[in-house]
Model the fold of this input.
Amino acid sequence: MRVRLIFKNKEKGATVPFHHQYYLFRFFKGLIKKCGKEEFNSFKHYNFSGLKGQTTVSKSGLHFYSSKITVVFSCSNRDFIDSIIEVLFSLPEIKLNGLTIIPLSVELENQIKFEEEVKYICLSPLILLTPEFSSDSGKKFIHPCSIEFKDYLNSALLEKNELNDFGGFEFHPDSNYLKKLEDMGKKYSRVYPIFDQDVPYEVRGYTFPFTLKAAPELHQFLFENGLGLFNDKGFGMLDLAEVTPGSQTIPYFTGQLEN
Done:
């Protein structure tokens, strides 16, 4: 399931870095710890987007001017999401770098009935390589149309043992989109900071549309838990390239969770 965590922006114009997944990762890890459920301490099958709202960009990062700010949070485990929500709404406010937000409400995204072929966009960068300390290996560029890119994606899937029963997949990047950006000198891949127990690394991430052919069960898992590596750190979140008619969200948290 996927929910939208909606917050009130306490101070319009406040700033966070352009890539702020690390601050969200630390925040969600704090919520998990505060849940007090031992089974979730090492749980990693969840995913989240960056902060969404009306912004302007400066050298210092993203300035948020909208009254509301949203984070998409996703996981196949409903109990995990409910536990996060309960702890979240016990907090009067949250500080994320220079931003102060107040929990307001939660909306549930509609369940999607997946076909075998689906076109996606990346809500957060897709990571292929595991970086090494004091090494540039994680920053290596791999062209999305190459066999090597598909091989690394497949390796990332194989790390998730529960996916082995879903069979293989076909990955087809939007080559027209990639060529257009390349011709215009624009980027679809960048180097991002990533942290492991506060040790800094650098890793290359990709954001571009692509089509995936796979079993509907595999689509469901990837849509809820992310594609590629470091999903629990906020990387590899997907969204549908085309909005499904009638796919509005519905209220999920109104002060008390349903049993």
Notes: The first helix runs from residue 21 to 35.
